[in-house]
Structures are given as structure tokens and as C-alpha cells.
Write a structure and sequence with these properties.
The complex is a heterodimer of chains A (187) and B (107). Chain A is an all-alpha fold. Chain A is built from 8 helices and no strands. The chains are: A mainly alpha (187), B alpha+beta (107).
């Protein structure tokens, strides 16, 4: 691979980075090539020793997305960070994607419970409209109680969702440092 | 050697190389690859990450031969991190060496 091939391949793989950041990254490699060439190495030799541009881009991506998720906690950011960390190693598919799907489905189902409890008075009203003779005081009170429980679960879930999302990001980071073979011990 | 394992050690190597003097990227890469076989390109993502985590600051310096070079300088935070890593590394290698000694002896 020549210098130009290496740089354009790397540039292509760095989609998602801002223009400035991409230029900054490419400049480091241009400098590397320039010094290597001045030392009498060939472009192919230098590119060969640098390794594959796609692997380099993957590592840049993983760091970049974890950082972004730190600043803005949105569903899209979290999913992108999950993908980036998965990209670091195949074995991560089990370790990251598994818990992610499990946690996400638990949270979604709890939200569904909360919403359906909260809306139960509506069902009671529909029931009265369909069977006007079937008015039961017991049904009325139990659906009011369910509505209250639903609202409480909803409020609780708001905090739980936030806490789980933050916890999961910490897990992602720990995982990324594990995959990168970091020596940092969790203390 | 295992790729992931090597990457963790790389962080320690970079920090320790900057302990006594500021160096530029190419120099760091060469110093490391003189001793350990690595994919040289992976040093730069590492340098970027450690810079973002404020372990290094960078500055450009003109060079007599060729273009100006980006130098990396260890910050106080980076120095503390290096101390921590060195302690971890020592505990780790001592443990592994002990296991190796026992393993070889019982064979």
C-alpha cells in the first residue's frame, strides 16, 4: 500500500468523525510517513508496519463513541457506543449484546406494565359503555388503584431507566478497557 | 504474544517513555517497536486517547529535517497514572513469575 492509499483508506473508514478531527488524525499519520521517508524507508514498508487502516479506525471509533455517550445520553448514542465496542472484538457480541438486549427488554416490559396500569380506568369506561348494566363498584376502585400503582411504577421507572443507562455505559467502558487489555484495575 | 495483552502493555510503554523527556509520535513508535513487535499504527489511537484523558499535552516543534513534529508531554495527572500503572505492573509480573516458578518446579 502506498502512502496515499493508506491515508485515503483511513479517511474513508473515519466517517462519523468531524472534518477537523479527521484532519487531525490523518496529520499524525502523514507526519509518520514523512519522517519515515526522510529516514530512507519506502512508503510500502511504512504502511506495512503501521498495520491495517480499518483496525486503526475501529480503535479510534470505539474511543470516540464512548466519549460522546458521556456528554449526551440519548438512545442513539448508546446504541452507537454498543456497536463500536462490539467492533473491537468478536467475543464481545456475547458479553455486550446479550446483557444489552436483556436489560432493554426488561425495561421496555416494565414500562409497558406501567402504561397499561395507568390506562386501566379507560378500560373501565369502555366496559361501562359496552355493558351499561354491569356497573361494579369493585371494578371502579380496583382500576383506580391500578392507575395509581401504574403512575408510581412510571415514576420509579424513569429513575431506574436513567440509572441502568448510566450503569451500562460504565460497563461498556470497563469492557472496552478489558478488550484493549488495560491494566487499570477497578478499585 | 496475545494482541490484547500487548495493547495494555503499550499504554505503560508510552507513558514510561515520556517520563523523562518529551517525544514525538514517530520516535515513540520506533522506541517501542525496537523492543516489542507491534502494529505501529495502533500507537496513534492510544496517544489520542491518553491526550483526551489529559495524561499528555501536545505541542508542535519545527525540525531541521522535514515537517514540524507533534511532541507529547506528560502532565501531572499522567505522572500519577504512570505511578499507578507501574505498581500494578509490578504486582502483576511478580504474581505471574511466582506462578511460573511454581509451575516449572512441580514439573
Amino acid at each position: 500500500m502506498t502512502k496515499d492509499q493508506f491515508l485515503s483508506e483511513l479517511d474513508k473508514r473515519l466517517k462519523g468523525f468531524s472534518y477537523r478531527e479527521r484532519q487531525d488524525i490523518l496529520m499524525d499519520y502523514e507526519e509518520h510517513f514523512a519522517i519515515g521517508l526522510a529516514e530512507g524507508k519506502t512508503e510500502e514498508e511504512i504502511a506495512e508496519r503501521l498495520g491495517s487502516p480499518s483496525q486503526i479506525a475501529k480503535e479510534m471509533m470505539a474511543t470516540y463513541h464512548l466519549e460522546k455517550v458521556d456528554h449526551h445520553l440519548t438512545a442513539g448514542n448508546i446504541i452507537r457506543a454498543v456497536w463500536a465496542v462490539i467492533g473491537l472484538g468478536f467475543f464481545n457480541i456475547v458479553i455486550v449484546l446479550g446483557p444489552f438486549i436483556a436489560l432493554a427488554s426488561i425495561i421496555i416490559s416494565l414500562w409497558a406494565v406501567s402504561v397499561s396500569f395507568t390506562l386501566s380506568p379507560l378500560m373501565f369506561l369502555v366496559g361501562i359503555i359496552i355493558h351499561p348494566n354491569h356497573f361494579l363498584l369493585f371494578d371502579l376502585f380496583s382500576c383506580i388503584a391500578l392507575c395509581g400503582i401504574g403512575i408510581l411504577i412510571g415514576i420509579g421507572m424513569y429513575y431506574v431507566t436513567k440509572a441502568v443507562a448510566l450503569g451500562f455505559i460504565r460497563y461498556l467502558k470497563y469492557n472496552a478497557s478489558l478488550v484493549k487489555g488495560g491494566l487499570k484495575r477497578e478499585s | 504474544m496475545n494482541v490484547q495483552f500487548k495493547k495494555g502493555v503499550l499504554e505503560l510503554c508510552v507513558l514510561v517513555l515520556l517520563n523523562k523527556q518529551d517525544r514525538y509520535g514517530y520516535e515513540l513508535v520506533q522506541k517501542i517497536s525496537d523492543q516489542i513487535e507491534i502494529s505501529e499504527g495502533t500507537v496513534y489511537p492510544l496517544l489520542r486517547r491518553l491526550t483526551k484523558e489529559e495524561y499528555f499535552t501536545t505541542y508542535l516543534k519545527e525540525s531541521t529535517e522535514g515537517p514540524s513534529r507533534k511532541y507529547y508531554k506528560l502532565t501531572e495527572k499522567g505522572r500519577r497514572y504512570l505511578d499507578q500503572l507501574l505498581r500494578d505492573w509490578e504486582a502483576f509480573t511478580n504474581g505471574v513469575n511466582q506462578l511460573i516458578k511454581e509451575g516449572v518446579k512441580s514439573d
